[in-house]
Specification:
491 residues; Arc Repressor Mutant, subunit A; 4 domains; eight-stranded mixed β-sheet; 16 helices; 17 strands; globular
Amino acid sequence: MQFRFADCLLDLGRRELTRGSEPIAVGPQVFDLLAYLVQNCERVVSKDDLFEAIWHGRVVSESTLTSHINAVRKAVGDTGEEQRLIRTIHRKGFRFVGEVKEELRGGDRAAAAVKGPVPDLPAPVPERPPTAERRQLTVVSCELLLGQGTARMDPEDLRDVVRAYHECVSETAARFNGMIGDTFGNAVLVHFGYPAAHEDDAEQAVRCGLELCAVVTRIAEVAGLETRAPLQTRVGIATGVVVASDPTGVAEARERGIIGETPNLAARLQGIAEPNTVVIAEGTRRLLGDLFELQDLGAREFKGTAGPVRAWAVLQASSVEGRFEALHARNLTALVGREEESELLLRRWLRAKAGQGQVVLLSGEAGIGKSRLTAALSERLGSELHARLRYFCSPQHTDSAFYPIIAQIERAAGMAHDDTPHTRLDKLHGIFMQSSTSIEDAALFADMLSLPNDGRHPALDLGSGLIKSTIQERQRDRQTPGSCVPAYRSE
């Protein structure tokens, strides 16, 4: 049996999920959860229904269910904010709201036409029990502060607030490739680097912590709850080697065994954090380079640690130009074995100076030195007059096609994180005054940076699609000879 919805195809017989033309890998319980929601799309499915259908009545935490719902949404291209396909019905459960078309697979139709007994299927092979393994793990310990905002609150309302906080943490962690590890009342542990490891786990953990501090104040409003004051949280993050069980990641969150000092250290750091602040350990800081602006809190003594631990408060993401510079600002290794590629790039540069336009595509697997090679070229050209435009994609902004352009303009204009919208608009206006940019084009770029129109630009009377196509056209025009583009100039 197959089910089609949106751009997805769910094949129950083969236990496969396809989105577009790409197969989507999901865990067994995530697949079962999606199948149950799709097959019961005509009604609201309660949490008890899901506990019984997917976990067969076993006792699991609600954060486990929330993390699996988030995994299902991610697999089908949905989010907790949009809820285009899977909608959360407050205090009721969940409902699959996408249009579902049920159909038989070709093999199913052929099998239905065959008469006679169906041969017995072979007995399933029992799964091997999960084994423990050593892993480097980044642990985020976050706590909802139960202070003035929840004072004298009815216990049932307080339970709803804590539940909404758990859901917020789970949804935020899922966006940054984190996995809920455990919950303790109003505290939650999130694992980064387990069961799947990524090279930017520490960075993603810190971004997750900053996002939690930003969104926690809106939890009560989104959940339709009333509190005496805005809610607050605090976050501690530590990175280290642990022994982890269930490497497949399909068991319940509370059953994943994480043994080591790292979770305890993360909890201790969370305990010294100020409200709506992220504090990290030295081991995490070493993996971040200059990606964030930090405040040194000095060495701290914590119960359960071998010695003093240096702690850092994360202030905000830095305005560093690119990830390579941020992660390799110090101790840049020598470029070895790339003489041929370096000479090729220099030859193309000489042709470009002679008036022969050149384009070079440098591609290859991650970690082979593409960024290092371009950095070496920049060093070689440091004494020559040239304009350099640099655009960087970001795994944190995959939903923004114009992010590389926006970031480059912000760097060229010298915009800071704490600039007011009016100040940012002044800086944007300043760089366009130095070029031949028309006032209409300036209005387009101001709209792209989500800056308010204070009357200095004409009002745009275009739909979002027309604005996007017009910006693309203007950006292509700006690549023609003689045009002016905001850029860094090296002399």
